[in-house]
Amino acid sequence: MRIVMNEMKKIWDLKMLALVGVISVLFFLLFMEFNITDFPNGHPHTERYDFSKELTLKYGTTLEKSEFDEFMQKRKELVAKAEDYITSDPAFLAAGIHNYEDYKIKNERSENSKAEKDAIWHLLGKECDFVEFKIQAFDSIADDYNNAAASYKHYISKSGSPKEKARLQEILDTEQYRSIILDHTIDNTGSYILWLAILVVLSVLILLSPLLVNDKMRGVDVLQYTSKKGRKVLSSQLWAVLISAILLTTIELAAAAGIYSINNTQIFWNNGMNSFIGRYVFWFDMTFGQYVLFSAFMIYLCALGSALIAYVIAGMSQHYIQLILKLIPVFILLVLICQSVFDVSFSMSNILYQLTGILGIETIICGIVFIIGIFLCIMLVQRMRRADI
Amino acid sequence: MNILHFEIEKLLKASPLWVFLLICMLFNVFLIVVDSGRGSYAAFIDNISKETGIELGDNFNERLKQLSPNNEKNAAYLLQLMRETSGVKDVFDNYDASLIGESYIKALGIDGSLAKMIRHKYSVLQESIDKKAASNESLTLYFGSDTYRYHNLLFGGVMKWLLTEGILFASLAALLSVGFENINKTGQMVYSSKKGRQILVQKLSASVLTGLGAYLILTLLTLAVYFSFNSYGGILDSSVSSAFNYIRDLVAGVRPFSTWHSFTILTYLLAVIGASMGIILLFVLMAFAIGVLIKNSYIGFIAFLIANAAVVTLPFYLPSTNMIPFLLTLTPEWLWLKQSLWFTDGGMEALVPNFETVGIIISLALLSVFCIYAVKHFKRRDLI
Angle between the B58-66 and B41-52 helix axes, to the nearest 10 degrees? Predict the structure, then answer.
């Protein structure tokens, strides 16, 4: 254990930690900050997201028919608000718009005068509190709710796969689609998880790779092999690498989760993933919270797999440049794996599922990365135990 | 000369470098095979262009009518091409480039000297556009309605990957060359010899020659594979500013692919290879200087990554009315990012005409100074 701790001290070198920290910050600013600062992004996503939040806070995880009917009353308030803007703003008067009905008629017409076009955009703008976008979002949510069962029936008739038909029928029968979670929320969280997974893999590769190469370049490995502990030190180093990978992943996950909580999407934690306002069909009856936790588990698998592969690559490299030259293709491969695994994981839209038709292929791939890492490590340790010094 | 020869030999004998190059080659072949255009509309156009020529107009239309397709697919393609090329207009006739500039100025919310520079850039572009209009440059075939896809496949895809791989290879070769004595613990012997620390000049030359040589080899091999999967034989003399080619832009919308000078596909390809070599040279200088300043090659490489990532990130956090984000487009990192716009106006962030050439020259000057500083610093450094 003492050797493991000393090996970990070598890994958690302050200079290296500072570099990993700077890289993580730059990576976050380049690829992940967008998911915080620009969420929800644009119209009508913002309005639809606001309604989904309101629905969850008011009615819980699902929207039942009676609750939906009650919620529909809100439309009158929105139209009344729009009417207020129309009657009080001269832009509408100039366009000959006196009430919301007039507005709708002009909006649906293909040709309008400049004053009419200006008035149409006016009600969609900030100066009118985006009220028309709110009404449109409200109507689209109502349509989604009313057509949800019909949509699933349509998917069932279109699908050629018996497995998919059965799953869609199950969602229809159990009314799982009544869950409230917007696809925009799933897209945003999914994109954040994907970039986080890539960041974790990158950090693990950068921090853990130099351990064995450092020892080789300083000639320490020869001293280690001829000591009382002998080549068993390789196992201690491997444990140090694995423990460090878990620690680093935990720190990065905790930091990323803390930052992401600014979005306040945790209010959907217990909502099911198959929703009437979502375009994805998920294979398992999981909640948003379970989805996030399972994604974190897959990130751990990828991180541990990457750490093991980094250990093997370092064991096969004589110097740093050799190490980097090997790490670059491996990193690109791991990025491609992450992109396919975290692409709306566990849904029928996931690219790995579409290619293989295997349920849960995402976890299997992460598991394979981990197992390949273990297998390569065993091979390396056995080879190094027999190697001449 | 002899030392240079040995320094190059050291790099040539570094097998991991060449394994890396081989992996890059395999990756490129994979990308090319996945996007192969065999049997496509573009292949049909290339094939018939040998009979019809590439200049659009009445003669071209007449020659098209005389063709007799040998199967249904080609008949459909021929009809499609006839539809696309009959009545095609010169996109540069009466084209007003200043509208692009004004849309950028409005989107950025800038005025004063920045707006003046953007207006000047588009007034110069207008002169190029007028010349193109006079010579009917846009009335060339390229790949018809498949042009945008294939132009981006070659210049935005394959050439971009080649540049990225070239940068990585050459930068790592530079770091390896500089760190070689440290890795092999021969530094104290080499630097205390008669030649001493002046060997860095040979190391830099060896890195540049090896990096550029490897890029050229990789480019030749990759392009050989690319052209064997995608036929360009008949249309290589088409102008890249064909009426079918365009630039998509969030602010200015879809606009013609207008270059400062007249380029055929072949000459544009050669120009892109030339500019790519210039940019690889810049990254070699940067990696070399960092490698000289930082003894540990691993930390040196990470510092190299951080420096580049910082330059890419910085403009997003500066106000668009500030001059710095515009100046940063002249850095090697932004020139790399904007590769698909080389030899055109360069989009919203480029302030000057021929931004890629200006960027390469300015960066070359600055990085040369950085290298000289690094070498001078190294000359005074304690070895032990």
Answer: 110
User: Model-level pTM?
Assistant: 0.90
Is B297 in contact with A321 (Cβ distance < 8 A)? yes
- B/e letters for A51-73, b = 16+ CB within 10 Å, e = fewer, are bbbebbeebebbbeeebbeebee
Question: Between helices A45-59 and A65-72, what is the axis angle to 10°?
Answer: 120
Contact residues on chain B for A325, CB-CB shorter than 8 A: 16-17, 19-20, 172
Residue to mutate among A325, A332, A351, with most B CBs inside 10 A, is: A325
A59, A180 in Cβ contact below 8 A?
yes
Interface test with chain A among B31, B302, B317, by most A beta carbons within 10 Å: B302
Q: Do A319 and B313 touch (CB under 8 A)?
A: no
Q: Which of B19, B27, B175 sits opposite A321 (nearest CB)?
A: B175
Q: Is A286 helix (H, G, I), strand (E, B) or coil?
A: coil
Cβ <8 Å between A23 and B298: no
Using CA atoms, how far apart are residues B293 and B376, in angstroms rounded to an integer? 10
Q: What is the pLDDT along chain B (384 residues), one digit of tens a residue?
A: 688 999 999 999 999 999 999 999 999 999 999 888 666 899 999 999 988 999 999 899 999 989 888 888 999 999 999 999 988 899 999 999 999 999 999 999 988 899 999 999 999 999 999 999 999 999 999 999 999 999 999 999 999 999 999 999 999 999 999 998 888 888 778 888 777 788 899 999 999 999 999 999 999 999 999 999 998 988 999 999 999 999 998 898 999 999 999 999 999 999 999 999 999 999 999 999 999 999 899 999 999 999 999 999 999 999 888 899 999 999 999 999 999 999 999 999 999 999 999 999 999 999 999 999 999 999 888 766
Q: Hey, is the C-beta of A322 within 8 angstroms of any chain B C-beta?
A: yes
Inspect the interface and report whether the beta carbons of B309 and A323 lie closer than 8 Å.
no
Alpha carbons within 13 A on the beta-carbon side of B294: 18
Tell if the CB–CB gap between A29 and B316 is shorter than 8 Å.
yes
- Per the structure block, which two tokens stand in for B222? 């990759």
- Cβ atoms of B220 and B166 within 8 Å: the answer is no
Task: Specify the residue for token string 């997003």.
Answer: B316
Separation of alpha carbons A292 and A223, rounded Å: 46
Q: Can you tell me the distance from the alpha carbon of B34 to that of B219, in angstroms, rounded to the nearest whole number?
A: 18
Distance from C-alpha of A94 to C-alpha of A84, rounded to nearest angstrom: 16
Distance from CA of A217 to the nearest CA of B (A): 7
| Nearest-CA distance B270 → chain A (Å) | 28
- Evaluate whether A23 touches B306 at the Cβ level (below 8 Å): yes
Interface of A with B in 207-226 (CB under 8 A): 209-210, 213, 217
Token pair recorded at residue B173: 């070769």
